[in-house]
Amino acid sequence: MKFVFIGFFAVLIFAACDNTTANRADADTVTDQTVAGDADEIVNDQPDQSETDQTDDVIPDNLVTDDTVDEIPDDDTVGTDCMTNDQCAEDEFCAKPLGSCSEAVAGKCDGRPTDCFMTRAVAPQCGCDDYTYSNQCWAAASGAVIAHAGECDGDVLCFRNDECGENEFCQKKTGVCDMGFGVCRPQPTDCPQPEEPAPVCGCDLREYGDECTAWMNDIPVKHEGACTGPKDSMVRYFYADDAETPEGYLRIVVSPTNIREFWTTDTFTEQFNGNSSVTLTVRFYESDLPESDYAELQYTLSLPPTLPMGVGFGYEGSYLRWYSFNGVALGDMQGTVITYEYVRHDAGNEVSTLIVSGLNLWVGE
Question: How much is the pTM?
Answer without folding.
Answer: 0.68
